[in-house]
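Figure 3 (text version): structure tokens given as input.
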């Protein structure tokens, strides 16, 4: 087998449900003044799934677009990774169904539950597979968080959205392309900052489990904000250092779209020109792991990535888990 020096991002795709939900609908329900959500988060609208939408369907739409963008055969895909916190079912994993729906016949398939940083973990694993096996990988991140929101809890009800984003990684002989530097982090001491209390093996479904215990809760929004800024900033700084690059070398900064104030603070900490930040939160909200590949696809459609561009991706979320990747185009 020929030695592969690197991987490269060859295709991008995304998909969102048809239903758009404006801030006014949520503000009225929660008794918030008009404009409160946008001032605090940067979100104006988001997409929520309708009754017939499924996670695997949303993921398949994004994955199909990425494969078409890459210009390769579906038979070439050797591994399908699905980063999600909201699979179709707790068991089995949704990735085999995703591969089946896409007609990918020669691929392994597995789910990854990395919360908001799940796409970056999947991207890191995909890069290693491509380097080792010399075959393409499809990475999809997708969530239907609207079905896990507690509509009475302001902290989560105003933020979360539904979306899918996808990329295809293919082998490359150019060491200046693909994953140039990365850093991953975790902090289990803050395990319960964002959680779904019931439904797991510690507290399984039972008659005495209240319905809202199976919905998402954010214990301390301010603490989550602080921790996310710190983890994203540190991981991004280390990833740049590992790539032998500085903030001025970044052509586009693609952060997890958790809250505009979070990624603006990270941008300031790193010394990156704010004009280089890819911003999709206003129209799409926070879809957890899906925000970065969604942003990559939207950015590529608006202005195609040019050879030699350097991208900086960073995220942090429940777990806590976080990470950053420097990508050469």
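Below: residues designed for each position.
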């Amino acid at each position: 087998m020929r030695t592969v020096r690197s991987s490269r991002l060859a295709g991008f795709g995304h998909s969102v449900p048809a239903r758009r939900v404006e801030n006014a609908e949520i503000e009225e329900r929660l008794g918030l003044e008009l404009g409160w959500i946008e001032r605090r988060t940067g979100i104006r609208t988001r997409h929520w799934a309708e009754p017939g939408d499924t996670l695997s369907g949303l993921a398949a739409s994004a994955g199909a677009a990425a494969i078409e963008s890459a210009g390769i055969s579906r038979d070439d895909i050797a591994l399908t990774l699905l980063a999600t916190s909201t699979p179709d079912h707790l068991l089995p994993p949704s990735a085999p169904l995703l591969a089946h729906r896409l007609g990918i016949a020669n691929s392994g398939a597995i789910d990854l539950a990395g919360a908001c940083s799940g796409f970056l973990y999947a991207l890191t694993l995909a890069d290693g597979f491509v380097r080792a096996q010399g075959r393409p990988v499809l990475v999809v991140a997708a969530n239907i968080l609207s079905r896990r929101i507690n509509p009475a809890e302001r902290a989560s009800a105003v933020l979360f959205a539904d979306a899918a984003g996808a990329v295809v990684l293919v082998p490359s002989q150019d060491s200046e392309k693909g994953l140039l530097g990365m850093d991953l982090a975790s902090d289990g001491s803050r395990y319960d900052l964002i959680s779904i209390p019931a439904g797991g093996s510690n507290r399984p479904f039972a008659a005495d489990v209240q319905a809202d215990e199976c919905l998402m809760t954010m214990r301390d929004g301010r603490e989550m904000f602080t921790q996310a800024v710190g983890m994203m900033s540190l991981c991004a700084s280390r990833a740049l250092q590992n790539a032998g690059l500085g903030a001025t070398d970044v052509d586009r900064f693609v952060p997890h779209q958790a809250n505009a104030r979070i990624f603006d603070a990270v941008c300031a900490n790193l010394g990156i020109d704010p004009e280089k930040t890819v911003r999709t939160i206003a129209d799409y909200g926070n879809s957890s792991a899906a925000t970065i590949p969604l942003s990559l696809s939207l950015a590529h459609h608006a202005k195609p990535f040019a050879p030699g561009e350097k991208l900086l991706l960073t995220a942090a979320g429940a777990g806590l888990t976080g990470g950053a990747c420097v990508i050469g185009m």
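The first strand starts at residue 6 and ends at 15.
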